[in-house]
Specification:
Largest sheet: 6 strands, mixed
Structural class: alpha/beta
Order of helices and strands: EEEEHEHEHHHHHEEEEEHH
Number of helices: 9
Strand order of the largest sheet: 4-3-2-1-5-6
Radius of gyration: 29 Å
Helix content: 25-40%
Strand content: 15-25%
Shape: elongated
């Protein structure tokens, strides 16, 4: 049992009230268990002027089929091994697969398809909360990729092979042969608990720090950021808070005659986006700073206290 990396160009439209899908082009690369390319498949749809033309023609060894979309799907089913795991990125392909299988009598079981997107998210779960785009994945893994070429399925599958090789190397380094078992079963639960790319953690942390500092500038203050801890100062105090905390606590030390450490609660409400959360902290800090200007921290009050202490 090996792998097949697959990408498809398709279109759809309404026929009456029914959605009808149409295959335009298929590109697939077959891999063995060592992730070496062993064969390739390409389907190009016939059209009134001869066939559906890609804007670029790639030199592809292996099987090339020209015909109707149904014929293309049938030929792909014959070419793909019965036990091969088929790797796709775009989840929307699921709808197309179900439609084409129904049209040709269930050539390929949907259970054989694994989403590389889900696999990538599982392997990088320690550094993200949202699903990355394919370009982001390639960039994070240090792999070159021409965005202008993304619409060509042959190029996309070739780059997907490079991405999967990188994931496979890291997976086997940490999990040995169990990695293949997890991928082929489609159960990525165990994969999520392993930190495969510690370097990516550091890069993500650095990017997050830069993002928070830039957002704090939009709030009108310069800040130092370490992890999720943000430090900034106003005219009358030094403030510290943790943007990742749900409790909303703002700690500060006054620059006045009395330099005690103080803490106040900040009502974050239902704020979800980071800029709104940071603004809430800064607004609270400015309220405190305004009070300090008329109390502890006021030059007049400090002068009186000094006289009393003499």
């Amino acid at each position: 049992m090996g792998y097949i990396v697959l990408d498809i160009v398709w279109s759809f439209g309404l026929v009456g009230r029914k959605v009808q899908y149409s295959l335009n082009e298929i590109a697939a690369i077959k891999l063995d268990d060592e992730i070496h390319s062993t064969d390739s498949f390409r389907f190009i749809k016939e059209s009134d002027d001869g066939y559906f033309k890609s804007e670029l023609h790639f030199d592809v060894e292996g099987k090339i089929t020209v015909g109707t979309d149904k014929e293309g799907w049938v030929e792909f089913g014959k070419w793909a091994g019965y036990e091969d795991v088929i790797l796709i990125w775009d989840k929307d392909i699921n709808k197309l697969i179900k439609y084409m299988n129904k049209e040709v009598g269930g050539t390929i079981s949907p259970r054989r398809f694994i989403h590389m997107e889900d696999l990538y998210v599982a392997m990088t779960s320690s550094v993200r909360d949202v699903t990355p785009k394919y370009m982001t994945a390639m960039d994070e893994m240090g792999l070159s990729y021409e965005q202008s070429m993304a619409r060509f399925p042959v190029y996309k599958t070739q780059s997907m092979v490079r991405l999967y090789r990188k994931l496979n190397i890291a997976g086997k380094k940490h999990l040995d042969t169990k990695y293949d078992q997890y991928v082929k079963s489609g159960d990525f639960t165990a994969i999520c608990v392993t930190n495969f790319f510690p370097k990516l953690d550091r890069i993500e942390s650095k990017n997050k720090t830069k993002e928070i500092r830039e957002l704090m500038k939009k709030c009108g203050v310069e800040a130092r950021v370490t992890g999720s801890v943000v430090k900034f100062e106003t005219d009358y105090a030094n403030f510290v808070f943790n943007y990742d905390s749900d409790k909303g606590k703002l700690t500060y030390t006054t620059k006045s005659f009395y330099k005690g450490l103080r803490c106040v609660n900040v009502n974050l409400g239902k704020e979800k986006d980071m800029l709104s959360i940071l603004k809430t902290y800064v607004v609270k800090a400015k309220e405190i700073d305004k009070r300090l200007a008329h109390g502890v921290g006021s030059k007049e009050v400090i002068a009186i206290l000094k006289k009393l202490c003499v």
